[in-house]
């Protein structure tokens, strides 16, 4: 880090970097959501199934997000756990129209929450009940019921209905996530100060 | 959730994705298929519903948990398959529904083509008779009599029309004849089973031919585009179930379970069966796993056969089989057989080993494993009560190689910790191997010497009458002695028994021999009265130890006979140390 960067950091000009994991089943819309969050000149037109994972970056008013956009295909899901340590926040995307695989999403979520790298950390989790544009899509309340989100007691979480194709619901979710992350940074720096 | 450990083990393998107990489905495994009907990578569930069995037959298409499309079928479906019939883009499979003598082909869920089986040879006599009826030469009753005659004697069976006519009441005959006499008679067979066979490429998306088995003991292979008969194979009996593998242009194998209880294996080269498997009871399920054929029989057994018909294994089942299906997961290299049982369970067998049991709320009558929606490991089950259940195999599910059924305990196969062979052991073994004869001889010599010494000692004892048992046949006696007391006074009890069968013994005396410096005895010599056979006579005498040195000696007892110098019996009594004296 150069002197200028440090200076910028002190002055609050440089934005704090946050690593975010984007998880969810295949075809739930992870890449589409991340694509929509990028500045409009960096967005791509055609989204293809992700192989392995992609790293994307986007900025909000106070934070700079580095997103690990993981592939949701069954054979790549075992890669997820290797990145749990780095993730300071998690975005979990659900295809609200795929009722059949809601159990699979729940199973993957439970595996995530019980993983030793996640279990004892207060990682904020943002859920996107995606594909609200599809006619038979379930409501975000119904999705949160099916996934038993009320059982998550030790982590801040939030569920957002979204339509990633048109970008609806995404800003709301990201605002919440930003608030949570900033909050935890402030808390951490406070505790460091009090230790000194 | 469930409390039993077995149920927990199962819930760790399967997720309950969907269960509708009142889906109003009446179908079997042969009428269920999974296919990507829209070309969007999402498989639909296609079901040929038998309705009530006589009406309301439907072709139903499910997407996810919801019924997406429904169209009426004209007749009962006997089989349903999806297949790619051409190379047009997008690659959307067609659906073939077999019912009666027809195959209805649907594309994009719309009727596309109807294939009719070729009609069979007609009895010339029958045709003649109907010709006469048409011209009015014979009346309905005569027609009936003639047809009955033909039915009983002719080689070629009657047509359906004649058979129906024979079953009519007399008053209905006139009308039936006038209604049907103008049409030519036809004899048709019906389809019993249907399958698909790749035409020339083994790829997943290769064009497939339809393979159909008919009631007339034939198997037809149809061209996928023109629906012409490419090949006709004949069987000794009517086929009921079929498994097809290979490619039509290269090499194929059709395994057919027939109504006569045999399984025939047809190959490309010959139109007659190549191999035959004769089963002990009727087959109720036939699936292929890899290169082997697994057959479920009516006697609640599962058999594994090679593709040449050699039996590999047998597994006993707890209940009758209702249906069977293969479970093929190429991404994990896992292949197994799903067996639906009448006790509301679905068993998963990998070879003869039961690797998983799924409990169902109702008897499962239709099974299909494959890609449904976007999930590769989906298991579709339909139940006797009309329910539809979808289970999804967990990503983390692992199947034990080991048999879940009870067998020998695992401890049996644990190797014992046998110590290594030492140098001494090896040397000894070598020596034994080299000098085996000499060692054997030395051993035999020593053994003979021991025997000789033992025999000599025995003879000596007998000669000196040293034993407490008399060997004299004239006076068989038994003696034992008991010493009581702590000393210096002891009581000596002699128990004498006559062991003869009936003769009493007379004129016996007892004498003691002892060291006079150590002991004194009140009666060192006494006579024994007559000994009645069998009874034990106790004789008591008192011994006093006169020494105060705390030593003991042996007192010898002799049983003597009047007029003989050698004693009959001798007993040695080891006297205890006199403790009473030592205390003083």
TrEMBL record, chain A:
One Pfam family linked to the record: Arf
MF annotations from Gene Ontology: GTP binding; GTPase activity; metal ion binding
SMART domains: ARF, SAR
Main location: membrane
Topological category with respect to the lipid bilayer: Peripheral membrane protein
InterPro entries named in the record: Arl6, P-loop_NTPase, Small_GTP-bd, Small_GTPase_ARF, Small_GTPase_ARF/SAR
Tagged with keyword Kinase: no
GO cellular component: axoneme; ciliary membrane
Residue positions binding GTP: 24-31, 72, 130-133
Subcellular location: Cell projection, Cilium membrane; Cytoplasm, Cytoskeleton, Cilium axoneme; Cytoplasm, Cytoskeleton, Cilium basal body
NCBIfam families, alphabetized: small_GTP (TIGR00231)
Family per similarity comment: Belongs to the small GTPase superfamily. Arf family.
Protein name according to UniProt: ADP-ribosylation factor-like protein 6
Species of origin: Gadus morhua
Lineage of the species this protein comes from: Eukaryota, Metazoa, Chordata, Craniata, Vertebrata
Encoding gene, per UniProt annotation: ARL6
Automatic annotation (TrEMBL), chain B:
Ranges in coiled-coil conformation: none
Locations listed in the record: Cell projection, Cilium membrane; Cytoplasm, Cytoskeleton, Microtubule organizing center, Centrosome, Centriolar satellite
Keywords in alphabetical order: Acetylation, Cell membrane, Cell projection, Cilium, Cilium biogenesis/degradation, Cytoplasm, Cytoskeleton, Membrane, Olfaction, Protein transport, Sensory transduction, Transport, Vision
GO CC, alphabetical: axoneme; BBSome; centriolar satellite; ciliary membrane
Chief place of localization: membrane
A Pfam family it matches: GAE_BBS1
Bardet-Biedl syndrome 1 protein GAE domain ranges (all copies): 477-579
Molecular functions (GO terms): patched binding; smoothened binding
Bardet-Biedl syndrome 1 N-terminal domain: residues covered: 14-267
Gene Ontology BP term (one): non-motile cilium assembly
Subunit structure: Part of BBSome complex, that contains BBS1, BBS2, BBS4, BBS5, BBS7, BBS8/TTC8, BBS9 and BBIP10. Interacts with the C-terminus of RAB3IP. Interacts with CCDC28B and ALDOB. Interacts with PKD1.
PANTHER family xrefs: BARDET-BIEDL SYNDROME 1 PROTEIN (PTHR20870)
Name by which UniProt lists this protein: BBSome complex member BBS1
